[in-house]
Structure formats: structure tokens, C-alpha cells
């Protein structure tokens, strides 16, 4: 019998009135744990305590805060294999990707540990004689963090670390499908030298506890990553209370392969960008826009690479792509395969459910050809290991197709031409641009976010995070005569 995994409510590990089971998508017979679901009264009590805890935390010295964040980050990096394996078990990405994610998540904490010490503001002379102006940043109060399942540890960390760094309390509602990673990170944070109740974990369904959290008048800000429809719902709730909001949502990222591209680089970059994490990345390269002169050679090589990918149990050695996260996601992915065919696209490999020795949500990575940018498979985020090739006749056409989307998170180009790469960097309407690299895979010390339906509000990560997690105070000081 597995122990019940609890929520962290007002600083205490607490049971709820309901529970859910967490099963391994690589093998449904593997029960990872049973998790408590937070309820409305627990949310109320944790918010009440968080209010006081935030004031205590904001009054900590900067070295004391820095030490807390450093300890969290260091422990995560030290335990990245153990915690990455747990993540792999509940999310389905191969262990190497899980380990990499936890290590990277630790780096968010160590980066913001250093930022705790960088409390340098601005000052100016007033337009009035004898008056000085001091501009400084202050915490917001309680921040609600709503995170998704596809990067359950990294996404949450790139929100939690800056929120704490800049003196806020945090109430975290993780995706209910990946609660084990949430409990593991919360255990690390709860052990630190922080005021009781500064950090809360409220596991439960987005539609119940999530909705109650975002509607609360006690929270000052919401940082969300997930789907566009839920993002819009969150924005509507936030506006009712004039709550500050930051959202990172879906995308339909394009990778351009130009006529002068190195073929091996192009295929490696395309396959990695399209199928890493089973395609369940907001930065996935799902539209491959290929110049006609390289189309045949590229398609042939991509098919061979895709067919050679080893799909299997995410905790088994040699697996390159694990299962998708859930039965629902698998069903939607297979529906997109049917939709693509019905739209006239040709599926040249994969895209099928796979039988394995263990029951799980397996499908083969798939490639569509003969697609155009008006098809729904090229306009909607599929979040699947599926890529579409769109043939183009020129660089100008390629750029036009890249920008013909409601989204705008990442885009990339594979080319040997500096002139084209430079033009692309300047004219692709996305928040992130890559050259000869996959559209997925970003650093922690620089801004991250997109345009259009992909993002809303200030950028995340790096020094940009300060914009969201703080408010500015302008002080006028008249010193008088010496
Ligand atoms: P959702 O947008 O439903 O979930 C994201 C987070 O929001 C989860 O923690 C979820 O909780 C929570 N949530 C859901 N409804 C509410 C609400 N009313 N109020 C507050 N919080 C809420 O994404 P899904 O997990 O359902 O995935 C669906 C699709 O979304 C994917 O196929 C993909 O296209 C896209 N997506 C994009 C991501 C990205 O990185 N941009 C990440 C994840 C998904 P819970 O899961 O417990 O319901």
C-alpha cells in the first residue's frame, strides 16, 4: 500500500477529502502514488497564512534569501537522476530528458539565488532642486503558479524561483497528471529556512481548485503555462480582480530548411525539434518548411531517421521516445492523423498506435508530406510526435509561411547563408529564433516568451522575470540643509 502524498497547506502537509492515482504512461500497471486533492477551505487557510509569511520573507536579508534558493537549486542538481527518473515515470519522457529537466530546473534556482543579491535600483535628481529620487522594486504579495505536465519541474521552477527571489509568497497548482514531481520539489522547498506557509502546494483539478485559486482576491499575480483556451479563461478571471497575469501558451513553430542547408544538420535539427519529448513541447518544430530543391533528399532522410527512432518504455535503456502522456492525448493525436489524411496530407511514416509488452500510450513518430499552411494540422497545436513538411519555392515564401500563424513562440532556419539567417532573425515574428538549431531548447538566463496567441504579459526567465514578479516604487527625498 502506497502512502498518501499530501498537499502543503499553511506550512503543514495535509490530506484532502479526495485522492487521485498517478500511473506510469509507459506501463499502466506501475502505480506511482496516490495524491491528495486540495479543497476550497484548505485554499482559504493557505492563502491566509501566505499573506503573513510573505511579509516575513520580504523582511529576510538578501543573503538569507539567496542561501535558500541556492540550497534548493543545488539539491535538485545533485538529485537530478533520482528526480528525473520519477519525472520520467509519470510524464513519459526518457530518463535522460527527465534528468536534464530537473538539472535545468535546479539552475533556475541557482540563477535566481544570485539575482537575490543584485538588488540594484535606479536613482535620479528631481526636476525640483534639493530633491532626489530613488526607484526600487518591491514584491507583489502572493503569486499563483499554474503549471503544465509537459515540463512539470522546469516550468514550475522558472516561475517559483523568481517569485521567491523577489520576495513573494507562492501558491502552486501543478498539473494533476504529474503530481509526483510537484510533491518532490515541494518537499525540497519546505525543508528550507523559509517562513511557515510561504510556499503552498494545492494539487487538484484545474477546473476546481485551479479556478478557485485564480479567482481569489488574495492573490496579486498569476503565472500560467498551458493551453490557449485555459489561458483565455485565466485572463478573464484575472481581469475581474485586476490581478497581474503572465501566460505562456501553445504554438505552431516552424523550422525553415533552405536550399543551401547542410542536409545532415537539417534532418538532425528537424527530428530533434519535432519528436523530443514525444512532440509535447510548446517549442516543438511541427511545421517543417523545406525549399523545393532539397525537398526530396530531406524527406527521404527524415523518414529514415524517424523510422529508426526507438520508441519504448521511458525508463528502459536505449529508448529515444517514450509514450505520450495520457489516453486523452493519444486519442487526440490519432484524431489529428486522421484529420491530416482527410485534408489531403500524405502520412509517409509513423503516426500509429503501437502495441508494447506493457500497456501504455505509445505511438510512432509520424511525418506528413504534401501539406499546405491552410490545413488544420498546420494551424493547430497538436502536441504530438507529428511533423508536417510544407514545400516552398523561395526564401520569401518560406518566411511568409513561418509568419502565417496565430502563434509566435519559436522559429528556426537551417542555412549556411549569413545574410539569410540575419534577415530571418529580424523578420520572423516569434519571441525566440534559432539558426541551425532546433526550435526547442532554450537557456535560463535570457528572456523566454512569444507573440500572438503564444504569450501574454511580460517575458519569463533571466533578468526579464523581475518585470512580472515585482512592482516599482518611486520615492522622492528632500534631504534638507546640511
Ligand atoms: P491545460 O491548459 O488544461 O492545463 C495547464 C494547467 O492549467 C494545468 O495545471 C491545469 O490543471 C490548469 N488548469 C486547467 N483549467 C484551469 C482553470 N480553469 N483554472 C486554473 N487552472 C486550470 O492543458 P492540458 O494539460 O489540458 O493540455 C491540453 C493542451 O494544451 C495540450 O495538448 C497542448 O496543446 C496545450 N499545452 C501547452 C503547453 C505549453 O507548454 N504551452 C503545456 C501543456 C499543454 P489540470 O491539468 O490539473 O486540469
Total domain units: 2
Low-confidence stretches: none
Distance between the termini: 74 Å
* Helical percentage: 25-40%
How is the biggest beta sheet arranged?
7 strands, mixed
Backbone CA Rg: 23 Å
What fraction of the residues are assigned to beta strands by DSSP? 15-25%
Spatial ordering of strands, largest sheet: 15-16-17-14-13-18-19
* Shape designation: globular
What is the CATH architecture annotation of the largest domain? 3-Layer(aba) Sandwich
Counting DSSP H or I runs of 4 or more residues, the number of helices is: 14
Mean pLDDT: 97
By CATH, the superfamily of the largest domain comes out as Aldehyde Dehydrogenase, Chain A, domain 1
Could you say which structural class the secondary elements and strand pairing correspond to?
Answer: alpha/beta
Could you characterize what this model shows?
The chain is α/β, with parallel strands linked by helices. It folds into two domains: 4-249 and 445-475, 3-Layer(aba) Sandwich (Aldehyde Dehydrogenase, Chain A, domain 1); 253-435, Aldehyde Dehydrogenase, Chain A, domain 2, CATH 3.40.309.10. It is built from 14 helices and 21 strands. The strands form five sheets. The chain has a seven-stranded mixed sheet with strand order 15-16-17-14-13-18-19, with helices on both faces. Strand 8 (142-146), helix 5 (154-165) and strand 9 form a beta-alpha-beta unit. Helix 3 runs antiparallel to helix 6 (179-190) and helix 9 (263-275) crosses helix 10. The longest helix has 23 residues, at 95-117. The model has no long low-confidence stretch (mean pLDDT 97). Residues 146-150, 173, 175-177, 205-207, 210-211, 214, 225-227, 230, 233-234, 248-250, 282, 381, 383 line the site of NADPH dihydro-nicotinamide-adenine-dinucleotide phosphate. Residues 146-150, 173, 175-177, 205-207, 210-211, 214, 225-227, 230, 233-234, 248-250, 282, 381, 383 line the site of NADPH dihydro-nicotinamide-adenine-dinucleotide phosphate (NDP).
